[in-house]
Amino acid sequence: MPAARESLLDAAYTALARRPWSAVRMVDVAAAAGVSRQTLYNEFGSKDGLARALVRREADGYLAGVDRALAGHADPRDRLTATAEWTLVSARGNPLVRAMLTGCWGERLPAPALPAVPSGSAGPAQRRADGPLPSPADFVALVRDRAVGLLAGPGVPRSDTAELARTCELVVRLALSCVTAPPADDGVADLVRGALYRQPVP
Q1: What is the predicted pLDDT for the residue at 127?
Q2: DSSP code of 135?
């Protein structure tokens, strides 16, 4: 029931934009998605299951944007700059992404536990929602490793790959610092470009 699942997640995200997560009611989410409350419970098991699935979807959306940013340019510096800019834009526009990247969950947001939780449902969608959620450190590693995987071509010496990994991690951490302390307009691009011209990038 992928269409119903996405509709439910969209409805939950919309509800979260209007009120704190503690005030979001399952019956209202189901009604907004045009399905029964039983369908909602069948899909997610509980309100916590819905929260975990919503956070997981937003995490996946952020990482898909990272992949697009990395693939959208020929020059490695431009790829890393675009990734940093996407990180800042995504965190500004999506409170769940911001919370995941920084670990700062406000009272208005769901704050599902990061470790995997036991699932009472045999459905694959529920198991996926119950899997571990990325921590801020996990996001640093995920983005760094995606960048290294794309930028390190075949035959690159191991020492060069290690240096590239350090450079990519520096960019990710610089972008995250801009999420918590936003720079002036286009400031993240200037900061990243300034850092990259001091770092070796293949």
Answers
A1: 45
A2: P
Residue 72 carries which side chain, given as an amino acid letter? G
Q: Is 11 helix (H, G, I), strand (E, B) or coil?
A: helix
Note the pTM of the prediction, 2 decimals.
Answer: 0.86
Q: How many helices (H) and strands (E) does the chain have?
A: 10, 0
Q: Cα(102)–Cα(137) distance, rounded to whole angstroms?
A: 9
189: number of Cβ within 10 Å: 17
Alpha carbon 8 to chain centroid distance? 19
pLDDT of the residue at 152: 83
Q: How far apart are CA 47 and CA 145, in angstroms?
A: 33
- Give kind and range of the element (H or E) at residue 60: helix 47-71
Residues 6+ apart with CB under 8 A from 188: 84, 85, 87, 88, 174, 175, 178
Tokens describing residue 44: 């997610």
Residues 6+ apart with CB under 8 A from 181: none
CA atoms within 13 A on the CB side of 87: 31
Contact of 7 with 34, CB cutoff 8 Å: yes
